[in-house]
Amino acid sequence: MKTTKKLGIWMDHSMAHLMEFTSKHFEIETIESELSNQERIASLAKSENSNFSKERKQLFEYYKKIGEAIKNYKRVILFGPTDAKIELFDLLSEDTRFLKIKFEIKDTDKMDVNQQHNFVKEYFSRA
Predict the structure, then answer these.
(1) CA distance 69 to 122
(2) What does the H/E/C string look like for 100-121?
(3) What gap in Å lies between CA 75 and CA 77, rounded to an integer?
């Protein structure tokens, strides 16, 4: 019987925790955005094109790093408190390399690492 590679990603616009689900333990990788929360708040408060353009570029690079990390998985659950997971999914769904990956998106609150692990464990254990 072949094991399906499964990955849980808790993310917001500043950080992503990637947790590979295996029967033994979790493998964790953290990817951080170049965009700090302060910069994000400041650019949302302003309507200047240069700030918006800089934020978009930084988010695109962040999402690209996450995409590279997940391209060899078969099932991925994206979860977290912001729209970052939806933005990532929208970007990846335009790339043919990700068409064979089964994605699911869930809204959750902020979570500590143990809560994230439990969420991923419960999600893949029942699926």
Answers:
(1) 22
(2) CCEEEEEECCCCCHHHHHHHHH
(3) 7
Asked if residues 10 and 16 have their Cβ atoms less than 8 Å apart, the reply is yes
Six-digit token string for 121: 């464990």
**Quick count: other Cβ atoms within 10 Å of Cβ 124?**
17
Backbone angles phi, psi at 97, to 5 degrees: -65, -20
Q: Which tokens is 44 given?
A: 């949302």
Checking if the pLDDT of 1 tops 50, the result is no
| Residue showing tokens 């809560």 | 115
Tokens representing residue 37 in the block: 């929360």
pLDDT in tens, 34-67: 865 555 555 555 555 566 677 888 899 999 999 9
* Environment class of 62 (CB within 10 Å of its CB; exposed 0-12, middle 13-18, buried 19+): buried
